[in-house]
Amino acid sequence: MRTQSPRRRLAGILFTLPSMLFVGAVMAYPLLYLGYMALHTYRPLTSSEIEPAGLSNITALFTDSTVTNSLRVTLQFTVASVVIEVVVGTACAILLANVMLNLKGRFGRLFSRVVASAFIVPFAVPAIAGAYAWRMMLDAQFGPVNELLGTSTPWLVEHPLVSIIVIDAWKMMPFVLFVMLAAVMSIEPSQYEAAALDGAGSVRILFRITLPSILPVMLITGAFRAVDAFTKVFDTVFATTGGGPGDDTRVLPLVIWRTAFTHLDFGTASAQALLALVISLGFGGALLIVQRRNR
Amino acid sequence: MRLTYSARKRLGATSAGVVLTVIALVMLAPMAWMAFVSTKPDADIFSRTPLSAPEELTGGHYANLFDQFHFGTSITNSLVIAGATVVISLLLGGPAAYGFARYPWRGSGVALAFLIVARMVTPAALVVPMYTIMQNLGLLNSVTGVIVGVSVLNLPFVIWILKPFFEQVPKEVEEAAELDGLTPGWVFFRIVLPLALPGIMTAVLYSFLAGWTDLIFPMTFITDANVMPLTSSLLQMQTGYRIYWGELMAGGIVLTLPPVVLCFALQKYLLRGLRTGY
């Protein structure tokens, strides 16, 4: 190994410094300011003064039913959508790998390319556009879903959380699919052949070879998806249910945004944001440490 | 009846293909629905049989986008935001990823960990203090605030994507160039960047998507319709009185087409980014 000369150390710092400064100025400073705001009252509608509030905004979090409700809703949303995405995504990946490995020839290749392209679309559609399209599709009177089912259910009113979960699963399942496809395709074909020679049926091959080899990737993908789903669920809910009916789909990011920009209560919003940060950074940080240990 | 091994395999693959076709159609349905509704006259949009074909198609909703909803400027604003996000993310993230990959210094591991954790910051949590800061700086109602916000959330991701690409560049190439007297900076620009081009393409694609699709920053920072990008312009079509569904779906198509075309064209890089980036 080469020794770390001062010149190389300087180069390392110079390469990374601009990024560190940018993130420091544009992320760290606002987050410190967020901490400051959480300890103050600032309601520009009633007064332009920023007044010290001690820990009252923080302690209020634990008794505020808006917050406790949003934690429950966000958790339900996260768990359900990630489980659906991982299960369906993995299943589709195994099916697609099966097609790619066993349907050779021009048709087989064309087929798997077309299917793969179709799965890219939800991933490429901006969340806000996808959300509005789904909102129309699920409409009670002029939505095609109800026409197909012969019903007239206002899905977003009667099953709001389920609808949001379906929309998120539609958008993010392909992501899991492509990650899992890479994992499935990296299994040595000789393993399948050996098992088949031993007389193992496809169900046995699935549980003895395929699933055990991809399980670690499944878990880590699911865990990262969970952090992502918990922290970034906003556009879809904002454009479809707006958090309603009642509090049914008031996820945490939406509560923070509404407290700040609809109710103009920046102190309370900052305390809520701090809570969201603690949860996502705590979970995300733990995840990174676990991942590093297992490497 | 007993089937041979290869016949069984082909049968299995064919049924897998049928299942996949059905799911793939569900995946395409929302975009197809957007396209369909965007060309229907209003009377047919609000019909009890929404799936039946309208008697005539109309381009009127698309025309309204530009006449009533200032989509011309919105497209420009979206391009500016996405373009600037690409430039900032790569200009800062490229060297940083290379530095982390090749010139580790004491504490660079911690710095990298911080950058990765920064990816997990809730945008809604960042937007609250940034709003007040942008207000004090006089940067509300300008694309600058949006660009800064989107870039800072995207930068860690770009570094994370690029680092493995730089690690794959053979060290010998760089060492030879250094022996020829090139400084580390020149080695990076002249030797490493061209070799890591697939990584750069991947980072460009994801940065463009981040800038083009972001909603929360523009909807918070921008109230002036002339400064809005496409994403927050869409919200304008939902007023307290009515929703302009035809225009909304047409606008959805305008917003959706560029990323879909780009993802198709750069499919190879998109998939590579999925595997290394997440």
From TrEMBL, chain A:
Can you say where in the cell this protein is located? Answer: Cell membrane
Provide the membrane topology annotation. Multi-pass membrane protein
Q: Which Gene3D superfamilies match?
A: MetI-like (1.10.3720.10)
| InterPro entries according to UniProt | MetI-like, MetI-like_sf
Entry keyword annotation includes Protease: no
Q: Which residues cross the membrane?
A: 12-36, 75-98, 110-134, 161-184, 205-227, 271-290
Primary location class: membrane
Any idea which UniProt keywords this protein has?
Cell membrane, Membrane, Transmembrane, Transmembrane helix, Transport
Mind naming one GO cellular-component term on file for this protein? plasma membrane
Tell me the SUPFAM superfamilies matching this sequence. MetI-like
Q: Which GO terms describe its biological process?
A: transmembrane transport
List each coiled-coil range. Answer: none
Provide the ABC transmembrane type-1 domain boundaries. Answer: 71-287
Claim: Transmembrane is one of the keywords in the record? yes
Highest taxon, organism lineage: Bacteria
> What family does the entry list?
Belongs to the binding-protein-dependent transport system permease family.
Q: What name does UniProt use for this protein?
A: Sugar ABC transporter permease
User: According to the entry, what is the taxonomic lineage of the organism?
Assistant: Bacteria, Bacillati, Actinomycetota, Actinomycetes, Micrococcales
TrEMBL record, chain B:
Asked if Zinc is a keyword of the record, the answer is no
Q: Membrane topology for this entry?
A: Multi-pass membrane protein
Highest taxon of source? Bacteria
Q: Name one Pfam family in it.
A: BPD_transp_1
Please state every residue range assigned to the domain named ABC transmembrane type-1. 75-266
A biological process (GO) of this protein is: transmembrane transport
Keywords from the named record: Cell membrane, Membrane, Transmembrane, Transmembrane helix, Transport
Entry's localization field: Cell membrane
Bilayer-crossing regions:
12-36, 79-98, 110-131, 143-166, 187-209, 243-266
Q: Which PROSITE patterns match?
A: ABC_TM1
A cellular component term, taken from the record's GO annotations: plasma membrane
Keyword hit for Transport: yes
Extent of the signal sequence: none
The protein's matches in PANTHER family, at most eight in alphabetical order, are given as:
INNER MEMBRANE ABC TRANSPORTER PERMEASE PROTEIN YCJP, MALTOSE TRANSPORT SYSTEM PERMEASE-RELATED
Q: Which family does it belong to?
A: Belongs to the binding-protein-dependent transport system permease family.
Q: What is this protein called?
A: ABC transporter permease
Please tell me the species this chain comes from. Actinotalea fermentans
